[in-house]
Amino acid sequence: MSGDLVLTEKRSSSMRQNERRCGRGKNTVIVAIPEAEDAVWRYSSEKIPHLTLLFLGEVTDEAKIFQMAQFLKHAVRMTLPNKFGLSVDNRGILGADKADVLFFSENYAIEKLESLRHSLLQNQLIAEAYNSVDQFPLWNPHLTMGYPEAPAKEDTRDHGGIHYVNFNKIA
Question: Whole-angstrom Cα distance, residue 128 to residue 170?
Answer without folding.
Answer: 20
